[in-house]
Specification:
mainly alpha
Length: 149
């Protein structure tokens, strides 16, 4: 796969520092999207405002989850702070993603029955052999032993 020399050097920089191949792939994805979003400008020419605008774009236009937005922020923090050695500073001005957790529609209507379809689960208390009724139930070999408990 051909990519720009900049992205190749970024991947090599991370590989030398023993980053996971999956982390390298994810960071490369977000940096590549960042460069494309800003009309293929070099990231060293961009700064904190460009990162804030891209992270806001992710939350508003692409509607990503908060964890995805955090992953993109980590990629840019690595890009600027470690690779380009241009500290980003405070980038907390971006709009954070506010997606709610999605539940299956059936779980809202059926409740716990959807999650636990076993017929053994019910509203009745569990039947166990320990408790007040257990003393009357004795195995045959203990029939002659007095119950002291």
């Amino acid at each position: 796969m051909s990519s720009s020399p900049f992205l190749q050097s970024l991947c090599e920089h991370m590989a030398v520092r023993h980053y996971s191949p999956r982390t390298i792939k994810a960071y490369r994805f977000w940096v590549k999207g960042f460069i494309r979003f800003h009309d293929r400008q070099h990231p060293s020419l961009l700064g904190r405002d460009a990162v804030v605008s891209y992270l806001t774009h992710l939350a508003v236009t692409q509607v990503v989850t908060p964890s995805t937005q955090a992953l993109a922020l980590n990629a840019f923090a690595y890009l600027y702070n470690r690779f380009l050695e241009q500290p980003l500073g405070d980038v907390s001005a971006f709009r954070r993603s506010r997606l709610e957790r999605k539940y299956p529609k059936a779980s809202k209507t059926l409740g716990w029955q959807f999650m636990f379809p076993s017929s053994r689960l019910s509203h009745e208390p569990a039947r166990t052999n320990n408790g007040p009724g257990a003393r009357g139930i004795r195995p045959p070999w203990m029939a002659k032993v007095p119950a002291f408990y």
